[in-house]
Amino acid sequence: MRASSRKLAALLATRLDEILPPSLSARAEGPRLSIFAGGEAQGGSAAAVLVEDEDDELDARIETAVRAMLSGVQDCVIRHLGEPWPESGRQGALPMPGARVEQGLVHLWFGDEHAPDVRLTPFERSRLME
Predict the structure, then answer these.
(1) How far is 39 from 59, CA to CA, in rounded Å?
(2) Using one digit for the tens of pLDDT, what is the confidence trace for 10-23?
(3) Which residue of 9, 10, 43, 115 is 20 to 30 Å from 26, comparing CA positions?
(4) What predicted TM-score, i.e. pTM, was given to this entire model?
């Protein structure tokens, strides 16, 4: 069994739709995660393909791919809104994306891992496998 970039993009699109500003939506297009506003693509990330590079351990690949994808989405949303996103509880701080695989769950957040500004719904690592 191997990890699927298409499945990762789809799982992240679903979770991002829960937290994106109402004017934006996320959509998986194969291994690419795209952000849309009014039907127009605003950008996104193709970093999901990193999970298919079998040079590193799977959990490390998942964490790297998720952080890169969340960072790409964050940049896209900031360009579209013209202001920092997501909002941070700390003055002037932009919450950085994070990911950790622990006990078979993929945890995602923006900000400090232990007190995130935004936490996305985790998913089971097994859902990435083909």
Answers:
(1) 34
(2) 999 999 999 999 99
(3) 115
(4) 0.95
